[in-house]
TrEMBL record:
This is Phosphate uptake regulator. It comes from the Archaea. Residues 128-200 form the PhoU domain. The gene is phoU. InterPro entries: PhoU-like_sf, PhoU_dom, SpoVT-AbrB_sf. SUPFAM superfamilies: AbrB/MazE/MraZ-like, PhoU-like. Pfam families: PhoU. Transmembrane segments: none annotated.
Length: 290
């Protein structure tokens, strides 16, 4: 990190970019850059497309998918995947996984596929809201279905994962001061969804799932207000929920997953405190409105 002076050119302000950064990113006086700002942070990125080549020595689906996810969330726009021994069946599986990552094939050869990422224009806060509403939908299904559908739960859980990947990608491509908080939020909500999948497989009492659904609804309502007192009230309410859950949990494993869902909701609520404080010039904490 360096400190640089700002100077004025007519009615605008300017600052010199570091020469090593320009050379590394092939930026010169004819280049275009993307300028992103939020709160007190300004970020500058080269405007040109970023590409990466991934070469894998054997067709292992889990390995290849993890590498594609990594390329997605670290902001690459084009991925050339080369896999030795890639047959038609393996190619079909990778194509299917890539579609779920918003990657479209633009070129193919015997042992390679070139994917182009199709960016979705949704802001981070809306993606977080979708994750929370999807978690609530999962709760509804577990609470109302005669028996939770494992395939449906896994599919919806994958949707939550994709939202998290989109948030990570947005934060890599357009970094701002609050990005780290949104990534943390996404991870906590994703982990709550993972534990709900495990909990559903245990066929818990509907009363327990109903209590958890109430916790998620309260989280959705109070965390989005931007009211610091409401978030503190939410954390207090979630901690008290543990006693209620213990009344309905029939075994230690059920209680473990229910408890972890509450833990991750509390973790996420604490991130909202950071977000609210980070946007404030003055912090005044008053009792929450009932």
């Amino acid at each position: 990190m360096e400190t640089r002076k700002i100077f004025k050119i007519r009615e605008s302000y300017a600052v010199f970019l570091p020469k090593p950064w320009c050379e590394r990113n092939s930026v010169n006086e004819r280049s275009e850059v993307s300028v992103i700002w939020e709160e007190d942070v300004v970020a500058i990125k080269p405007a040109h497309m970023r590409a990466v080549a991934i070469k894998v020595s054997e067709p292992r689906q889990d390995t290849v998918v993890k590498l594609l996810v990594a390329a997605l969330v670290t902001g690459y726009d084009e991925v050339k995947l080369e896999v030795k021994g890639m047959d038609l069946q393996f190619r079909h599986k990778i194509m299917s996984s890539a579609r779920g990552l918003y990657m479209l094939p633009v070129e193919e050869g015997p042992d390679y596929i070139v994917f182009r990422v199709e960016d979705v224009k949704i802001d981070r806060e809306k993606l977080i809201a979708r994750m929370i509403s999807t978690l609530s939908f999962m709760m509804d299904h577990v609470m109302t279905a005669p028996k939770a559908d494992p395939a449906l739960m896994e599919s919806v859980d994958d949707e939550v994962d994709r939202y998290r990947h989109m948030i990570e990608r947005l934060c890599y491509k357009y970094p701002t001061g609050s990005c780290v908080r949104h990534v943390q939020l996404a991870r906590y909500i994703e982990r709550a969804a993972d534990h709900l999948v495990e909990l559903a497989a245990l066929e818990p009492k509907r009363e327990l799932v109903g209590a958890l659904k109430g916790a998620v609804d309260e989280f959705s309502r109070k965390s989005s207000t931007g009211d610091l007192a409401a978030v503190f009230d939410l954390i207090d309410s979630l901690n008290k929920m543990r006693f209620v859950l213990r009344q309905y949990a029939e075994d230690e494993l059920t209680m473990l997953h229910a408890d972890r869902i509450i833990d991750y909701l509390i973790n996420a609520a604490e991130i909202y405190i950071d977000l609210i404080v980070g946007k404030s010039r003055e912090i005044v904490l008053q009792p929450a409105n009932s």
